[in-house]
Design goal:
CATH architecture of the largest domain: 3-Layer(aba) Sandwich
Mean pLDDT: 77
Strand content: 15-25%
CATH class of the largest domain: Alpha Beta
Oligomer: single chain
Helix content: 25-40%
Number of domains: 2
Radius of gyration: 21 Å
Largest sheet: 6 strands, mixed
Strand order of the largest sheet: 9-8-7-10-11-12
Length: about 400
Protein backbone atom coordinates (compact mmCIF):
# COMPACT_ATOMS: atom_id res chain seq x y z
CA UNK A 1 0.00 0.00 0.00
CA UNK A 2 1.28 3.45 -0.83
CA UNK A 3 2.10 5.88 1.97
CA UNK A 4 -0.47 8.65 2.23
CA UNK A 5 1.99 11.47 1.55
CA UNK A 6 2.40 10.81 -2.16
CA UNK A 7 -1.20 11.35 -3.20
CA UNK A 8 -1.19 13.84 -6.06
CA UNK A 9 -4.74 15.18 -6.21
CA UNK A 10 -6.79 14.81 -3.04
CA UNK A 11 -6.93 18.60 -2.54
CA UNK A 12 -4.98 20.02 -5.49
CA UNK A 13 -7.35 19.31 -8.39
CA UNK A 14 -10.51 20.95 -6.97
CA UNK A 15 -8.45 23.97 -5.88
CA UNK A 16 -6.89 24.52 -9.32
CA UNK A 17 -10.23 23.87 -11.04
CA UNK A 18 -11.74 26.75 -9.08
CA UNK A 19 -8.77 28.97 -9.93
CA UNK A 20 -9.24 28.24 -13.66
CA UNK A 21 -13.02 28.55 -13.60
CA UNK A 22 -13.49 31.69 -11.47
CA UNK A 23 -12.26 34.28 -14.02
CA UNK A 24 -14.42 32.75 -16.75
CA UNK A 25 -17.52 32.95 -14.59
CA UNK A 26 -16.79 36.62 -13.84
CA UNK A 27 -16.31 37.39 -17.54
CA UNK A 28 -19.60 35.71 -18.43
CA UNK A 29 -21.50 37.55 -15.71
CA UNK A 30 -20.00 40.93 -16.65
CA UNK A 31 -19.70 41.90 -13.00
CA UNK A 32 -16.86 43.13 -10.87
CA UNK A 33 -14.97 40.55 -8.80
CA UNK A 34 -16.68 39.83 -5.48
CA UNK A 35 -15.12 40.94 -2.23
CA UNK A 36 -12.57 38.59 -0.74
CA UNK A 37 -14.10 35.77 1.27
CA UNK A 38 -12.53 33.82 4.12
CA UNK A 39 -10.36 30.93 3.03
CA UNK A 40 -11.73 27.43 3.41
CA UNK A 41 -10.14 25.00 5.82
CA UNK A 42 -8.56 23.16 2.87
CA UNK A 43 -7.08 26.38 1.43
CA UNK A 44 -5.68 27.33 4.82
CA UNK A 45 -4.19 23.88 5.23
CA UNK A 46 -2.55 24.06 1.79
CA UNK A 47 -1.10 27.50 2.62
CA UNK A 48 0.21 26.31 5.98
CA UNK A 49 -2.04 28.76 7.88
CA UNK A 50 -3.89 28.08 11.18
CA UNK A 51 -7.68 27.70 11.14
CA UNK A 52 -9.83 30.82 11.15
CA UNK A 53 -11.13 31.18 14.74
CA UNK A 54 -14.17 33.13 13.55
CA UNK A 55 -15.30 30.31 11.31
CA UNK A 56 -15.18 27.63 13.96
CA UNK A 57 -12.85 25.57 11.78
CA UNK A 58 -10.71 22.98 13.46
CA UNK A 59 -7.49 21.67 11.99
CA UNK A 60 -7.93 17.94 11.54
CA UNK A 61 -5.02 15.61 10.81
CA UNK A 62 -6.12 15.34 7.17
CA UNK A 63 -5.85 19.13 6.78
CA UNK A 64 -2.53 19.54 8.57
CA UNK A 65 0.19 20.60 6.12
CA UNK A 66 2.90 18.02 5.58
CA UNK A 67 6.60 18.61 6.09
CA UNK A 68 8.55 18.62 2.83
CA UNK A 69 10.18 15.22 2.34
CA UNK A 70 13.62 14.73 0.78
CA UNK A 71 13.63 14.18 -2.99
CA UNK A 72 14.69 10.56 -2.58
CA UNK A 73 11.43 9.52 -0.92
CA UNK A 74 7.81 9.66 -2.01
CA UNK A 75 6.27 13.06 -1.45
CA UNK A 76 3.31 15.19 -2.42
CA UNK A 77 4.79 17.27 -5.24
CA UNK A 78 2.06 19.74 -6.14
CA UNK A 79 -0.51 22.17 -5.05
CA UNK A 80 0.07 24.63 -7.86
CA UNK A 81 3.50 25.24 -9.35
CA UNK A 82 3.10 28.93 -8.40
CA UNK A 83 1.90 29.93 -4.94
CA UNK A 84 0.60 33.15 -6.50
CA UNK A 85 -1.85 31.19 -8.63
CA UNK A 86 -3.75 30.20 -5.47
CA UNK A 87 -4.53 33.81 -4.51
CA UNK A 88 -6.92 36.32 -6.14
CA UNK A 89 -5.38 38.94 -8.42
CA UNK A 90 -5.44 42.42 -6.87
CA UNK A 91 -3.41 45.66 -7.07
CA UNK A 92 -1.27 44.41 -4.24
CA UNK A 93 -0.98 40.97 -5.83
CA UNK A 94 -0.68 41.40 -9.62
CA UNK A 95 -0.55 37.68 -10.33
CA UNK A 96 2.13 35.15 -11.13
CA UNK A 97 5.51 36.34 -12.39
CA UNK A 98 6.13 36.25 -16.09
CA UNK A 99 7.92 33.04 -16.99
CA UNK A 100 9.00 33.08 -20.57
CA UNK A 101 10.41 30.58 -22.95
CA UNK A 102 13.86 29.15 -22.71
CA UNK A 103 17.10 29.02 -24.61
CA UNK A 104 19.97 26.63 -24.16
CA UNK A 105 23.69 27.26 -24.01
CA UNK A 106 26.31 24.53 -24.11
CA UNK A 107 29.25 25.11 -21.80
CA UNK A 108 32.93 24.48 -22.40
CA UNK A 109 32.79 21.14 -20.58
CA UNK A 110 29.78 19.81 -22.49
CA UNK A 111 27.12 20.72 -19.92
CA UNK A 112 23.99 22.69 -20.75
CA UNK A 113 22.80 25.92 -19.13
CA UNK A 114 19.12 26.82 -19.35
CA UNK A 115 18.37 30.52 -19.68
CA UNK A 116 14.91 32.03 -19.79
CA UNK A 117 13.83 34.94 -21.97
CA UNK A 118 10.54 36.38 -20.81
CA UNK A 119 9.62 37.69 -24.26
CA UNK A 120 10.54 34.71 -26.41
CA UNK A 121 8.12 32.06 -27.62
CA UNK A 122 9.98 28.77 -28.10
CA UNK A 123 8.66 25.99 -30.33
CA UNK A 124 9.90 22.42 -30.47
CA UNK A 125 9.38 21.38 -34.10
CA UNK A 126 9.42 18.00 -35.82
CA UNK A 127 9.75 17.98 -39.63
CA UNK A 128 8.86 14.99 -41.82
CA UNK A 129 9.02 14.42 -45.56
CA UNK A 130 6.05 13.12 -47.51
CA UNK A 131 7.12 9.55 -46.71
CA UNK A 132 7.01 10.20 -42.97
CA UNK A 133 10.79 10.25 -42.52
CA UNK A 134 12.48 12.73 -40.19
CA UNK A 135 14.18 15.66 -41.93
CA UNK A 136 17.33 16.77 -40.10
CA UNK A 137 19.22 18.99 -42.56
CA UNK A 138 17.21 22.23 -42.44
CA UNK A 139 18.53 25.62 -41.35
CA UNK A 140 16.96 28.74 -39.90
CA UNK A 141 16.08 30.25 -43.29
CA UNK A 142 14.03 27.17 -44.22
CA UNK A 143 11.39 27.99 -41.59
CA UNK A 144 8.57 30.53 -41.56
CA UNK A 145 6.52 31.23 -38.41
CA UNK A 146 3.11 32.89 -38.28
CA UNK A 147 1.21 34.01 -35.19
CA UNK A 148 -2.46 34.76 -35.79
CA UNK A 149 -1.54 34.92 -39.48
CA UNK A 150 1.21 37.53 -39.00
CA UNK A 151 4.79 36.60 -40.03
CA UNK A 152 7.28 36.49 -37.15
CA UNK A 153 11.05 36.97 -37.11
CA UNK A 154 13.03 33.99 -35.87
CA UNK A 155 15.28 35.03 -32.97
CA UNK A 156 16.91 31.71 -32.05
CA UNK A 157 17.47 28.39 -33.78
CA UNK A 158 18.88 25.08 -32.57
CA UNK A 159 18.95 21.52 -33.84
CA UNK A 160 20.61 19.19 -31.37
CA UNK A 161 19.80 16.38 -28.97
CA UNK A 162 19.21 18.26 -25.73
CA UNK A 163 18.14 16.71 -22.39
CA UNK A 164 14.46 16.29 -21.57
CA UNK A 165 12.44 16.22 -18.36
CA UNK A 166 9.63 13.71 -18.82
CA UNK A 167 6.59 12.54 -16.91
CA UNK A 168 5.47 8.95 -17.49
CA UNK A 169 1.74 8.75 -16.73
CA UNK A 170 0.32 5.21 -16.60
CA UNK A 171 -3.30 4.15 -16.21
CA UNK A 172 -3.66 1.97 -13.12
CA UNK A 173 -7.39 1.28 -13.42
CA UNK A 174 -8.75 -2.24 -13.16
CA UNK A 175 -8.85 -2.86 -16.91
CA UNK A 176 -5.07 -2.35 -17.12
CA UNK A 177 -4.13 -5.22 -14.83
CA UNK A 178 -3.18 -7.67 -17.61
CA UNK A 179 -1.42 -4.99 -19.68
CA UNK A 180 0.97 -3.51 -17.16
CA UNK A 181 3.93 -5.83 -17.79
CA UNK A 182 4.05 -4.83 -21.47
CA UNK A 183 3.37 -1.18 -20.65
CA UNK A 184 6.14 -1.01 -18.05
CA UNK A 185 8.63 -2.55 -20.48
CA UNK A 186 7.71 0.06 -23.10
CA UNK A 187 8.13 2.96 -20.67
CA UNK A 188 11.56 1.71 -19.58
CA UNK A 189 12.62 1.16 -23.20
CA UNK A 190 11.72 4.78 -23.93
CA UNK A 191 13.99 5.96 -21.13
CA UNK A 192 16.81 3.69 -22.31
CA UNK A 193 16.51 5.02 -25.88
CA UNK A 194 16.54 8.65 -24.75
CA UNK A 195 19.39 11.02 -23.96
CA UNK A 196 21.35 9.68 -20.98
CA UNK A 197 20.98 13.09 -19.30
CA UNK A 198 17.18 12.95 -19.39
CA UNK A 199 15.23 12.80 -16.14
CA UNK A 200 11.79 11.29 -15.60
CA UNK A 201 9.15 10.76 -12.95
CA UNK A 202 6.37 8.14 -12.75
CA UNK A 203 2.69 8.81 -12.04
CA UNK A 204 0.28 5.90 -11.66
CA UNK A 205 -3.39 6.88 -11.70
CA UNK A 206 -6.86 5.41 -11.42
CA UNK A 207 -9.53 7.60 -9.81
CA UNK A 208 -6.62 9.24 -7.96
CA UNK A 209 -3.05 9.79 -9.08
CA UNK A 210 0.15 9.02 -7.20
CA UNK A 211 3.70 10.03 -7.94
CA UNK A 212 5.49 6.74 -7.35
CA UNK A 213 8.92 8.00 -8.41
CA UNK A 214 10.11 11.59 -8.45
CA UNK A 215 12.57 13.01 -11.00
CA UNK A 216 15.46 10.61 -11.59
CA UNK A 217 17.74 9.28 -14.32
CA UNK A 218 18.08 5.93 -12.51
CA UNK A 219 16.45 3.11 -14.49
CA UNK A 220 16.20 0.97 -11.36
CA UNK A 221 14.21 3.64 -9.52
CA UNK A 222 11.90 4.15 -12.49
CA UNK A 223 11.33 0.40 -12.71
CA UNK A 224 10.41 0.38 -9.04
CA UNK A 225 8.00 3.28 -9.54
CA UNK A 226 6.29 1.49 -12.41
CA UNK A 227 5.95 -1.66 -10.33
CA UNK A 228 3.46 -0.01 -7.96
CA UNK A 229 0.45 -1.70 -9.52
CA UNK A 230 -2.84 -1.47 -7.64
CA UNK A 231 -5.31 -1.76 -10.50
CA UNK A 232 -8.72 -0.57 -9.38
CA UNK A 233 -11.14 2.31 -9.61
CA UNK A 234 -11.91 4.71 -12.43
CA UNK A 235 -9.84 6.72 -14.89
CA UNK A 236 -8.98 10.31 -13.85
CA UNK A 237 -6.72 10.92 -16.84
CA UNK A 238 -7.13 14.68 -17.16
CA UNK A 239 -6.39 15.29 -13.48
CA UNK A 240 -3.22 13.20 -13.81
CA UNK A 241 -2.10 15.16 -16.88
CA UNK A 242 -2.72 18.58 -15.29
CA UNK A 243 -0.82 17.79 -12.11
CA UNK A 244 2.02 16.14 -14.05
CA UNK A 245 2.35 19.23 -16.26
CA UNK A 246 2.48 21.35 -13.12
CA UNK A 247 5.10 19.03 -11.65
CA UNK A 248 7.22 19.57 -14.76
CA UNK A 249 6.75 23.34 -14.58
CA UNK A 250 7.78 23.40 -10.94
CA UNK A 251 10.57 20.84 -10.74
CA UNK A 252 12.02 20.10 -14.19
CA UNK A 253 15.76 20.67 -14.51
CA UNK A 254 16.10 19.94 -18.24
CA UNK A 255 15.48 22.38 -21.12
CA UNK A 256 12.66 20.45 -22.83
CA UNK A 257 9.57 18.88 -21.29
CA UNK A 258 7.43 15.96 -22.39
CA UNK A 259 4.67 13.73 -21.08
CA UNK A 260 4.00 10.13 -22.09
CA UNK A 261 0.44 8.94 -21.38
CA UNK A 262 -0.49 5.24 -21.52
CA UNK A 263 -4.16 4.38 -21.00
CA UNK A 264 -6.80 1.95 -22.22
CA UNK A 265 -9.98 3.94 -21.79
CA UNK A 266 -11.94 7.16 -21.58
CA UNK A 267 -11.59 9.55 -18.66
CA UNK A 268 -14.51 9.03 -16.29
CA UNK A 269 -13.36 10.41 -12.93
CA UNK A 270 -11.54 13.74 -13.39
CA UNK A 271 -12.30 17.12 -11.88
CA UNK A 272 -10.90 18.74 -15.02
CA UNK A 273 -12.39 18.61 -18.50
CA UNK A 274 -10.36 18.01 -21.65
CA UNK A 275 -10.64 21.70 -22.54
CA UNK A 276 -9.31 22.78 -19.13
CA UNK A 277 -6.48 20.28 -19.39
CA UNK A 278 -5.31 21.56 -22.78
CA UNK A 279 -5.63 25.16 -21.59
CA UNK A 280 -3.52 24.47 -18.52
CA UNK A 281 -0.73 23.06 -20.69
CA UNK A 282 -1.00 26.05 -23.02
CA UNK A 283 -0.94 28.45 -20.06
CA UNK A 284 2.28 26.84 -18.89
CA UNK A 285 3.68 26.93 -22.44
CA UNK A 286 4.23 23.40 -21.34
CA UNK A 287 5.19 19.89 -22.36
CA UNK A 288 4.87 17.98 -25.59
CA UNK A 289 2.35 15.19 -25.00
CA UNK A 290 2.79 11.71 -26.47
CA UNK A 291 -0.07 9.28 -25.90
CA UNK A 292 -0.58 5.55 -26.34
CA UNK A 293 -4.19 4.40 -26.41
CA UNK A 294 -4.61 0.67 -25.77
CA UNK A 295 -8.08 0.63 -27.28
CA UNK A 296 -7.77 -2.55 -29.34
CA UNK A 297 -10.24 -4.41 -27.10
CA UNK A 298 -13.01 -2.21 -28.51
CA UNK A 299 -11.75 -1.98 -32.08
CA UNK A 300 -14.23 -0.32 -34.40
CA UNK A 301 -16.65 0.01 -31.78
CA UNK A 302 -17.87 1.66 -28.76
CA UNK A 303 -18.66 5.28 -28.31
CA UNK A 304 -16.39 5.41 -25.25
CA UNK A 305 -13.48 4.11 -27.30
CA UNK A 306 -14.04 6.73 -29.99
CA UNK A 307 -14.19 9.52 -27.40
CA UNK A 308 -11.03 8.25 -25.73
CA UNK A 309 -9.21 8.23 -29.07
CA UNK A 310 -10.31 11.76 -29.94
CA UNK A 311 -9.23 13.04 -26.51
CA UNK A 312 -5.75 11.50 -26.76
CA UNK A 313 -5.31 12.84 -30.29
CA UNK A 314 -6.26 16.35 -29.19
CA UNK A 315 -3.91 16.30 -26.20
CA UNK A 316 -1.05 15.26 -28.47
CA UNK A 317 -1.81 17.39 -31.53
CA UNK A 318 -2.38 20.62 -29.57
CA UNK A 319 1.04 20.28 -27.93
CA UNK A 320 3.06 19.11 -30.95
CA UNK A 321 3.25 15.45 -29.94
CA UNK A 322 1.98 12.19 -31.40
CA UNK A 323 -0.73 9.69 -30.48
CA UNK A 324 -0.48 5.95 -31.07
CA UNK A 325 -3.22 3.31 -31.16
CA UNK A 326 -1.57 -0.12 -31.42
CA UNK A 327 -3.56 -3.15 -32.55
CA UNK A 328 -2.24 -5.40 -29.78
CA UNK A 329 0.19 -5.44 -26.87
CA UNK A 330 2.84 -6.83 -29.22
CA UNK A 331 2.74 -3.53 -31.11
CA UNK A 332 3.32 -1.35 -28.04
CA UNK A 333 7.06 -1.71 -27.48
CA UNK A 334 8.24 -0.37 -30.89
CA UNK A 335 6.44 2.88 -30.06
CA UNK A 336 9.08 3.67 -27.43
CA UNK A 337 11.83 3.93 -30.04
CA UNK A 338 9.68 6.16 -32.25
CA UNK A 339 8.89 8.57 -29.41
CA UNK A 340 12.55 8.75 -28.35
CA UNK A 341 13.63 9.37 -31.93
CA UNK A 342 11.04 12.13 -32.33
CA UNK A 343 12.13 13.93 -29.17
CA UNK A 344 15.83 13.71 -30.00
CA UNK A 345 15.50 15.08 -33.54
CA UNK A 346 13.45 18.23 -33.03
CA UNK A 347 14.33 21.76 -34.04
CA UNK A 348 14.04 24.38 -31.30
CA UNK A 349 13.00 27.74 -32.77
CA UNK A 350 12.24 30.94 -30.88
CA UNK A 351 10.66 34.27 -31.83
CA UNK A 352 9.46 37.49 -30.20
CA UNK A 353 5.77 38.03 -30.86
CA UNK A 354 4.75 41.16 -32.73
CA UNK A 355 1.60 41.22 -30.60
CA UNK A 356 1.94 42.73 -27.10
CA UNK A 357 1.59 40.15 -24.34
CA UNK A 358 -0.61 42.61 -22.42
CA UNK A 359 -3.41 41.99 -24.94
CA UNK A 360 -3.81 38.46 -23.65
CA UNK A 361 -5.87 35.94 -25.56
CA UNK A 362 -5.01 32.70 -27.26
CA UNK A 363 -2.42 32.98 -30.09
CA UNK A 364 -2.60 30.55 -33.02
CA UNK A 365 0.84 29.46 -34.22
CA UNK A 366 1.62 28.02 -37.65
CA UNK A 367 5.05 26.91 -38.85
CA UNK A 368 6.03 26.16 -42.45
CA UNK A 369 9.24 24.56 -43.72
CA UNK A 370 10.53 24.70 -47.29
CA UNK A 371 13.89 23.60 -48.68
CA UNK A 372 15.10 23.21 -52.29
CA UNK A 373 16.42 19.72 -51.59
CA UNK A 374 13.04 18.46 -50.35
CA UNK A 375 9.54 18.21 -51.67
CA UNK A 376 6.54 18.77 -49.45
CA UNK A 377 7.50 18.96 -45.77
CA UNK A 378 5.17 18.19 -42.87
CA UNK A 379 5.69 20.29 -39.74
CA UNK A 380 4.48 19.32 -36.28
CA UNK A 381 4.55 21.69 -33.29
CA UNK A 382 2.12 23.09 -30.74
CA UNK A 383 -0.90 24.83 -32.18
CA UNK A 384 -0.73 27.94 -30.01
CA UNK A 385 -0.26 29.44 -26.57
CA UNK A 386 -1.42 32.00 -24.04
CA UNK A 387 1.13 34.78 -23.36
CA UNK A 388 2.48 34.47 -19.84
CA UNK A 389 2.26 38.18 -19.11
CA UNK A 390 -1.51 38.15 -19.46
CA UNK A 391 -3.63 37.97 -16.32
CA UNK A 392 -5.94 34.95 -15.84
CA UNK A 393 -8.92 37.24 -16.52
CA UNK A 394 -7.49 38.30 -19.89
CA UNK A 395 -6.76 34.70 -20.87
CA UNK A 396 -10.09 33.17 -19.92
CA UNK A 397 -12.22 36.03 -21.28
CA UNK A 398 -11.16 35.00 -24.77
CA UNK A 399 -13.00 32.22 -26.58
CA UNK A 400 -11.21 28.88 -26.56
CA UNK A 401 -10.27 27.66 -30.07
CA UNK A 402 -12.84 25.28 -31.51
CA UNK A 403 -10.27 22.52 -32.02
CA UNK A 404 -9.73 22.17 -28.26
CA UNK A 405 -13.29 21.41 -27.25
CA UNK A 406 -14.50 18.48 -25.18
CA UNK A 407 -15.24 15.53 -27.50
CA UNK A 408 -18.84 14.40 -27.68
Amino acid sequence: MRPCNNRLFSVFAPTLALVLAAPLLKAQAGTAPPAATPKSAAARALAGEPPDPASGQSQTPAQKPEAQAPLNVDRDPVQSPDAEDNEPVSPGHPGPPVRGAQTLEKGAHGGFTLRRNVDEVVLNITVLDDNGRLVNDLNKDDFKIFEDGVPQTIASFQHQDIPVSMGIIVDNSGSMRDKRAAVNATALDLVKASNHEDEAFVVNFSDEAFIDQDFTSDIGKLREGLSHIDSKGGTALYDAVVASADQLSKGAKRPKQALLIITDGEDNASTFSLEQTIRRIQDLQGPIVYSIGLLFGEEGGGRESRRAKRALKLLSEETGGMSFFPKSLADVDPIAAEVARDIRNQYTVGYHSTKPASLGGYRVVKVEAHAPSHGKLIVRTRSGYYPKAATPEARTAQAQPAHAQQPQ
